[in-house]
Automatic annotation (TrEMBL):
The lineage of its organism: Bacteria, Bacillati, Actinomycetota, Actinomycetes, Micrococcales. GO terms for biological process: L-glutamine catabolic process; pyridoxal phosphate biosynthetic process; pyridoxine metabolic process. This is Pyridoxal 5'-phosphate synthase subunit PdxT. Its EC number is 4.3.3.6, 3.5.1.2. L-glutamine binds at G47, E48, S49, R108, I137, R138. Catalyzes the hydrolysis of glutamine to glutamate and ammonia as part of the biosynthesis of pyridoxal 5'-phosphate. The resulting ammonia molecule is channeled to the active site of PdxS. It comes from Nostocoides australiense Ben110.
Length: 198
């Protein structure tokens, strides 16, 4: 089984560890640079991207993680994790940095205060015909994508219809929503498969 690290500085780490184990991976917490060397792939959980960024830098993991990503390590980012994998942020704090790798522009807290959190069934072709219940919590959306980026899902109802909320670029996967909280592990299984055969 591949060993997949969950970046464990802040956010809902435990749910991702569980979803990965249920999807056929060996899942470990990643909190220091030495742990970055032993993983085959990385998951960055939801949480608060400004805090995750600060702690990643404080724990000396910014460069080691960037280096692995540049070298082609697979990674999946959910919500704040999507922001961490994005090359560009709109609505970020001035000093906010990302790890980057995904040629996308994300907008933080894009859905606005009125719709802080919501759920929606999304039809995601790569997961099969059964819709996926997507939970959005102060979520970003993808404002713009580069030519290499594959769009996996868009919002299907309401004022944000058409907004991009799941993308893949080679070994990098990101969702605006939180599949780790629903018990439907198809996104994690899709990621583990991608780690097995990129
Ligand atoms: N709003 C958060 C951020 O900007 C993301 C929220 C989440 O991960 N659930 O980082």
């Amino acid at each position: 089984d591949p060993t997949i690290g969950v970046l464990a500085v802040q956010g809902d780490v435990r749910e991702h560890l569980h979803a990965l184990e249920a999807s056929g991976a060996t899942a470990i917490r990643v909190r220091r640079p030495a742990e970055v060397d032993v993983i085959d792939a990385l998951v960055i959980p939801g949480g608060e991207s400004t805090v995750i960024d600060k702690l990643v830098r404080a724990f000396g993991m910014h460069e080691p993680l960037r280096e692995r990503l540049r070298a082609g390590m697979a990674a999946y980012g959910s919500c704040a994790g999507m922001i961490m994998l994005a090359d560009r942020i709109e609505g970020g704090r001035l000093d906010q940095q990302t790890l980057g790798g995904l040629d996308i522009t994300v907008r933080r807290n894009a859905f606005g205060r009125q719709v802080d959190s919501f759920e929606e069934d999304l039809h995601i072709r790569v997961l099969g015909p059964q819709p996926l219940r997507a939970v959005f919590i102060r979520a970003p959306w993808v404002e713009a994508v580069g030519p290499e980026v594959q769009i996996l899902a868009r919002v299907e109802t309401g004022p944000a219809t058409g907004r991009i909320v799941a993308v893949r670029q080679g070994p990098l996967l990101a969702t605006s929503f939180h599949p780790e909280v629903t018990g439907d592990h198809r996104i994690h299984r899709y990621f583990v498969d991608l780690v097995r055969s990129p």
